Amino acid sequence: MPRILSGAAAARNVAVALDAAGAPRPATLSVVLTDDAELADLNVTHLGHEGPTDVLSFPLLPPQAFPPHEGGPLDGSPLPGVASSPSAAPFVLPPRSRLHLGDIAVSVERAVAQAAGGRGGQTGDVRWSGTEELRLLLTHGALHVCGWDHADRSEEAAMRALERRLLGVDPG
What we know:
The structure is a single chain. α4 (130-145) crosses α5. The chain has 5 helices and 3 strands, in the order αβαββααα. Residues 75-89 have low confidence and may be disordered. The protein has a single domain (7-70, 98-167), classed as Collagenase (Catalytic Domain), CATH 3.40.390.30. It has helices at 7-20, 36-47, 108-116, 130-145, 153-167; strands at residues 27-34, 55-59, 99-107. The protein is globular. By secondary structure, it is of the alpha+beta class. The two termini are 32 Å apart. Strands 1-3-2 form a 3-stranded mixed β-sheet, with helices on both faces.
């Protein structure tokens, strides 16, 4: 698999998305750049969906841990399986430690194939390089970790607009 984006460029890309989403600082986020086989395994194990996908995000914080935004849950409800009792005491980290936001797994193989086939841009109709598609998937995954979603039209429009802005892509 060819290297299409340096580690430093990938880290900068994710950092820009985390900043735009209002992620707490200091924090960490794991990013795994892998292939279709691993994404297919993760997809079936964690989501029950057969086959590979381009990016999976595994947030550790509820969406309410981030500033409210158009791409967030409309009813203010937490992610399924995440406790959100107002009386629950916040978890206190040891001094000088960083909060872990979650994990992102991206199939570089799928990013390259989507770009080569003109099926990029999350909408499946964008023609650009494998590097640009990988940058989009990293941005998309980071926003998901921060509570952004595209479950309905207004959330999707807000998320796509922010992705285009962060990537410097002309929406027209």
